[in-house]
Amino acid sequence: MKITKEEVEYVAHLARLNFSEGEKVKFTSQLNDILMYMDKLNEVDTACIEPMSHAIALQNAFRDDIVKDSLSQEVSLSNTPDARGPFFRVPKVIE
Amino acid sequence: MAYEPVIGLEIHAQLLTKSKIFCSCSTLFGAEPNTHTCAVCMGMPGVLPVLNRMVVEYTIKMALATKCAINESCNFARKNYFYPDLPKGYQISQYAQPLSEHGYVDIEQNNGKKRIGITRIHMEEDAGKMIHDEHMPSSYIDLNRTGVPLIEIVSEPDMRSPEEASAFLRRLHEILVYLEICDGNMEEGSFRCDANVSIRPRGEQAFGTRTELKNMNSFRNVQRALDYEIKRQQYILESGQEVIQETRLWDDSQGVTLSMRGKEEAHDYRYFPDPDLVPIVIDESWMEEVRKKLPELPLVKRERFMRDYQLPSYDAGVLTSSRVLADYFEDVARLSGKPKAASNWVMGDILRFLNMEKRDIKECPILPESLAELIQLIENGTISGKMAKDIIEEMYSTGKPPKTIIEEKGMVQITDEAALAKTISEILEANKAQVEQYRGGKEKLFGYFVGQVMKATRGKANPQRINDLLKKMLAAA
Amino acid sequence: MELHQLTIHELQKLIRSKEVTSSDIVKSVYKRIDAVEVSVHAYISLMKEYAFEEAAKADHSIKEGNIQALTGIPIALKDIVCTKGFLTTCGSRILYNYIPPYNATVVEKLREAGAVFIGKTNMDEFAMGSSTETSHFGITRNPWDLERIPGGSSGGSAAAVAADECIASIGSDTGGSIRQPAALCGVVGMKPTYGRVSRYGLIAFASSLDQIGPLTKDVEDCAIMMNAIAGHDPRESTSVPLDVPDYTAFLSRGIDGFKVGIPTEYFIEGIDPEITKAINGAMKAIEGLGATCIETSLPYTEYCLAVYYIIAPAEASSNLARYDGVKYGFRADDCKDLLDMYKKSRSAGFGAEVKRRIMIGTYALSSGYYDAYYKKASQVRALIKRDFEKALKHCDVILTPTTPTPAFKIGEKMDDPLQMYLSDIFTISTNLAGIPGISVPCGFTRQGLPIGAQFLAGHFEEGKLIQIAAALEKHANLKQRKPNL
C-alpha cells in the first residue's frame, strides 16, 4: 500500500492540518516508510483472535445518577481564547 | 407509474436522568449558558468518562418495551469529527456493538395493525448548542447540553406512507413518555426525528435512492416534510431524472426540503472502540430487575380499557394518551363503579377545563375521589345531571368535593313528590290554556311544561320525576 | 551531603527526627536548580512561591506530629499531569497558556501524602518522542553528558532526579517514556500495570497504553512513591479496583529461588556491546543472589513496533482532536472562517512529530483501513499479551536491557524516525501487554553514561519488580555516583 499525495491531503483535511508542498512530500515519503513497516502485520494469522482493546479485562464501571456541582461559568470560560458574554465564540462556518 | 414510498426514521431522545451520561453535571434544561459544565463534558485535557448506570437502565427499559434483543455485551465507540459544539472532537456513541437490536412496534392504521421493525437502540452523548450570529461572522457555543444522555432509535425502512411514519413516531413518543425516561418535547429538542425516504415503483423489491431529511421539529412537520419529499422525488423520476443521495433540510417557512449539498461533506467518522470505557455486560438478572419496573404499556392498556370497561377505541385512545390521565380515569371508574360515566366526564368536562388553561392532568384540582362522588350523587338521584354540570365547575375552581359544594349552596335536588306536585299544579293553574291545548292533542306542549317546571325549580328537580309527575297530572283532569 | 542529594527515605528520617525542615529541603532543591537548571533545563515551569508556602504548611504539620509518607518532600511533576491553577503545557505550544481547573488524581494523592510540588518538568510534546527534543519549550540535556539527550518523553523528570533538582518525580509511560529516560539518566523508573495508577488528569496520548509512574533515585523511593499513587479511582473507568500492597515490604525479601526469564528475541544484533556486557553482569549478579536465569521466548516481539505504531497514533489522533482552539489553548490569529481556524491553529500549535503521528493515526482509522490496520493491530496485540502470560507462567520476572544504546547525542537521530522508533523496542511490548516494568541502573559505559536493566512482571506484580530491582541495586552499588554538573 503506497500512500499518494492525494491521500496525504485527504488525511490532512480529516485531521484539520495544513502542510506546505515541501512538507507534504516529506510526509508522503516518511509515512510510506512507516507503512511498509506496518505491512509486516499481514504476516500474522489472526483468524480466530479477538481484537484486544483493553490490557486488563474490566466491565460495568458505573457511577450513580447523582448531580454534583459544575464549574462556574467563569471558570468554564477561563481558558478560551475568545469568549463573548457567557459563550465561547468561533468564526462562522463559511456557507 | 405508481410509486411507493419507503421510509425509515432515526429518533434521538434525551433521557430524563438527573446527571449527564459521563459526568455528574445536571441535565436540567434552560440554565444560563456554560453553567452545567465541568472539565469532563467540556473535554478538557486529561479528563475521562464514567458511565451513568441509570442511562443503561433506561435504555434497557426502552429495549424491553420494544421487544428488542439485548446484547449480552456492548461497548462504546468514538465517532470522530470536528465541530465547535463537540468539545472532544469526537462523540461517544455505540457502533459495532449496540445495547439492543431487532425489536418492533405495532402501529394502528385504518386497515388494522402494522408491525414496524426497530433495527437498533443505542446510547450516546448529546452535543452542545451553537447560535449563529445573524450580522457578524461569528457563532456562539453553549456546552450545557454536551453529555446529556441520548438514546438513538433506528427503524427498519418499513413505513410506506407519511401517515405510517407519523403513527410510528407517535407510538415511540408515547412509549418513551410512559416509561418516564424522556419528556418527549420536540420543540425543546428532547425528542428529535430524522427521516430516510426513497420511492420505488410499486411491486419493485429494490430500494430507490434515498435522501435524508433533517430539521423537522414537530410531528406535523415530519409528515409535511415527508409528503413534500415524496412528491419531489416522484416528480424527479417522472421527468426521467435521478434522485441524488443527499441530506436535505426541511424549511418550515417555505414548506420545502432544501439540499445541503456543497455545505456538507461526507463524514469519515473513523469509528473505533473507545479505550477509556469498558464493556457493559447485561445479564438475565439485571434484565429481569428492569422488566419488573416496566409499567403497563399504552397499547396493552388501551386494549384492556376497551375490554374491561367496554370503551370504544377512540375513548380508550384519549384516556391512555398519558399514563397519569389513564390512572386518573381508572381511579374514577373504580371508585364510582361507573366506567362509562367516568369516561364521559373525564373526556368531556375535565379535559375541557384543563385544555382551556393549558394545564396537565397532573395539576387537575378535582381529585378522582371527588369526581367519583359526583357520579354517584347523580346515580342515586341526589342531584340532576344539569346540577352536576354547575357543581363540577365549582369543584374545578375551588377544588372542593361535591358534597361540600351542595351543602354550601343548598343545591340538593328536589325529589320530594309532594313539593314537586305542588309546584306542578301551580304551573298548570297558571297555564290553563296550554293545558287545554295539550289535552286536546298538542303533545308538543309537554316540552313547554317541562321547561316551566325546570324554571320554577331552578333546575333542581329530578327530570325523570318531573316527567313522570307531569304526565300523571296532565293526564288526570 | 547536601539535602537535595538525598533520597525520600533518607529525608524522612531527618524530618521525623526534626533535624531538617521541609523549608530547608525546598530551599536546597531550588538552590540546586538555580545552579544547574540553565545547563540541564529539566523544567518548563517552577512553582517556587507555592512550594515555599506548602513547605511552611508541611513544617507546621511536622511540628504537630502529623507526618505522612511524603510530608515536606519536594516532588516534580511531568508537565503532562494537570495541576489546578498551575500552567500545564504538555510540552506543546497548543497548550502554552493552559491552566487546568482541576488536579489530576495522582496530584491529589501525592498532596494527601504530604508532597510539596516544586515544578513541572520538560517532556517531548504530547509525550510523543524518546529524547525530549520535541518540546516546544526547548530541549533537556542529560546531566551525565550535556551534549546528550536524557531520553524521553519524561526526559525532564528523569534529568531532574539525576541532577538532584528534585527528590523524586512523576512521569508517564506510553511506550517506554519513564523507563527509557530513567535508564539513560541513571535513575529508577517504573511503569505500573495498566489500571494500577489513575489516568484521570493525565493528558491523554494513547489511552489504552498510558500510565503514570515514579522516577526516583533508588528502588526504596520508588516503592514509597508507588504506595502513595497506586489505587482505584472512580473517576477512571479503566482503573482497576484492586487493593494496593505495601510495596516497601518487598524491598528486603531477596530473590532466592527467583526465576528470571531471558527472552531470546530481545538479545539481538544492534545492541551496544557495553550494554550487553552490563546486562550479562546483571545476570551474573542476580544468579549470585539466588535467582536462576532461564531462556524464554516472546515470539511476537518482532511485531510489537508495528502494533504500537498503529494503535498509539490512532488513539492519539482521536485524543488530540480536542485541541481546536475553541475552549482552551492556542488559537491562530486572522482566521477567515471556522475551517481556517481549525487548520491554522492546529498546524501552528502542534510540532512536526505530533502532526506526523496524528497523520498516521488518522490514516489508520480512516474508512477502508480500519480492518487492515487498527483492528489487525488489536488482534496481534492480543497475541503479544499472550506471549507474556505464557512466559511468566515459568518465571517470576523477565530481564531485558532497557535500551539498545546509551544516550545518543542531541540531534543525532532526529531526522530518521525509524531509528528513533527502534530505540523503543525493549519497552513498547510492556505497554501493549499492560504489564508492569521497572528500569534500574546496572552499570556505566566507559564514557560514563548510565545503563539500565529492565525487569518485567505479570499484571499487578509490581512487588516482584521492587524485590529484584532492590536486590540488583544493592549489589550494583551505584547510588553514590552522581553526574558532574
How is the secondary structure organized here?
The complex is a heterotrimer of chains A (95), B (477) and C (485).
Chain A: H1 5-14, H2 21-39, E1 62-63, H3 73-77, E2 83-84, E3 87-91
Antiparallel strand pairs in A: 2-3
Chain B: E1 3-14, E2 51-52, H1 53-65, E3 69-70, E4 73-74, E5 77-80, E6 90-93, E7 100-109, E8 112-125, E9 129-132, E10 138-142, E11 149-155, H2 162-178, E12 191-201, E13 211-216, H3 219-238, E14 247-251, E15 256-259, E16 272-273, E17 280-281, H4 284-292, H5 298-308, H6 313-319, H7 323-336, H8 339-356, H9 368-379, H10 385-398, H11 402-409, H12 417-430, H13 432-439, H14 445-456, H15 463-475
Parallel strand pairs in B: 13-14
Antiparallel strand pairs in B: 1-11, 1-12, 3-7, 4-17, 5-6, 5-16, 7-8, 8-11, 9-10, 12-13, 14-15
Helix pairs in contact in B: 2-3, 5-6, 7-8, 7-9, 9-10, 12-14, 12-15, 14-15
Chain C: H1 8-16, H2 22-40, E1 43-46, H3 48-63, E2 74-78, H4 105-112, E3 116-121, H5 155-162, E4 168-173, H6 179-185, E5 188-191, E6 211-216, H7 219-229, E7 259-263, H8 273-288, E8 292-296, H9 304-319, H10 338-349, H11 352-365, H12 371-391, E9 397-401, H13 417-422, H14 425-433, E10 437-444, E11 450-457, H15 462-476
Parallel strand pairs in C: 2-3, 2-4, 7-8, 7-9
Antiparallel strand pairs in C: 1-3, 4-6, 5-6, 5-10, 9-11, 10-11
Write a brief structural summary:
The complex is a heterotrimer of chains A (95), B (477) and C (485). With 95 residues, chain A is of the alpha+beta class.
Describe the structure.
The complex is a heterotrimer of chains A (95), B (477) and C (485). Chain A is of the alpha+beta class. Helices cover 36% and strands 9% of the residues of chain A. Chain A has a two-stranded antiparallel ribbon. The two termini of chain A are 36 Å apart. Chain B is of the alpha+beta class and 477 residues long. Chain B is 40% helix and 20% strand. Chain B contains 15 helices and 17 strands. In chain B, helix 2 (162-178) runs antiparallel to helix 3, helix 12 crosses helix 15 and helix 14 packs across helix 15 (463-475). The longest helix of chain B is centred in the middle third of the chain and has 20 residues, at 219-238. The mean pLDDT of chain B is 92. In chain C, helix 7 (219-229) runs antiparallel to helix 15 (462-476) and helix 9 (304-319) crosses helix 11. Chain C is of the alpha/beta class. In chain C, strand 10 (437-444) and strand 11 (450-457) form a beta hairpin. Chains in contact: A-B, A-C, B-C. Chains A and C meet through helix 1, helix 2 and strand 3 of A and helix 9, helix 10, helix 11 and helix 12 of C.
